[in-house]
Amino acid sequence: MAYTETEIDQFMQAAIDEANQARIIGEVPIGAVIVHNGEIIGRGHNIREHAQDATLHAEILAIQEACMVAKSWRLEETAIFITLEPCPMCAGAIINSRIPNVYFGASDPKAGVTGTLMNLLTDTRFNHQAQVTGGIRETECAALLQTFFKAIRAKRRLKKKNASNLK
Amino acid sequence: MAYTETEIDQFMQAAIDEANQARIIGEVPIGAVIVHNGEIIGRGHNIREHAQDATLHAEILAIQEACMVAKSWRLEETAIFITLEPCPMCAGAIINSRIPNVYFGASDPKAGVTGTLMNLLTDTRFNHQAQVTGGIRETECAALLQTFFKAIRAKRRLKKKNASNLK
């Protein structure tokens, strides 16, 4: 299913809303939604720190919910919208669940494997490939992360300063 | 922590036991365990079909249990024992959970990314690398899968034959 620019924008907004849910609870702000026939059937945001579980990235949670809603591990004819380029685990979960369309916002120079470090989703040695479109509302998606990490660094500096003042 | 050959054999047996749990319920027989300080802290076997969830591979379930037991998403100083070479999703989960030692049984020519199609766990562009040892009790691990798929093919042939007899 092909989406219009307005629809792509709208579904990425839903992923950004998810990322904001992560930000509010102090998690790295990354969000994802899965769309089938124009409807969101799975949502997720990163909860690694709260759950203390390395597997609970936004995409995994969105895929798990979508599988539950679809009553199938095969998410054919769906699209996933993610604020950040997927890591190997999440790209692998996209392969395993047969999601054919991937839209992401910001690129990830550290772990992005759908175009940046490599492209696992166009590698024909795996039994599934996906169409990948990056850079959707890139500035907003990247700003979410930049603001989050800037605040963390400022907090750390303040803590260090207060600690040295107490000496 | 370095393991003796006997220990490696014993932990792979626990992974094989998990694979057999999958086999008994009709799932592709793949199992995994995670070991910390000589004790198993996470176990998992493939339940993709029963759960209709593409993410529920043996390794993901073992990692989730180990994170819960360790009360941490960081599984440093652990080892994972898996009957089959990990796929991209599971290799990615190993990176994300910082597991330093990976032992697997059979190689996977279709999706194995810790030596066969590529090696995601020695790629220094990611923020974690792992020591990978393949071929542990390889014949038994491979036989589990071969027997499983042979039985499925035989069942399919019988079904086809019965259907044509009814015509």
UniProtKB/TrEMBL annotation, chains A, B:
Pfam families: MafB19-deam (PF14437). It comes from the Bacteria. It catalyses: adenosine(34) in tRNA + H2O + H(+) = inosine(34) in tRNA + NH4(+). Coiled coil: none annotated. GO terms for biological process: tRNA wobble adenosine to inosine editing. Binds 1 zinc ion per subunit. Keywords: Hydrolase, Metal-binding, tRNA processing, Zinc. Residues 6-133 form the CMP/dCMP-type deaminase domain. It is an enzyme of class 3 (hydrolase). Catalyzes the deamination of adenosine to inosine at the wobble position 34 of tRNA(Arg2). Belongs to the cytidine and deoxycytidylate deaminase family. ADAT2 subfamily. This is tRNA-specific adenosine deaminase. It comes from Latilactobacillus fuchuensis. The gene is tadA.
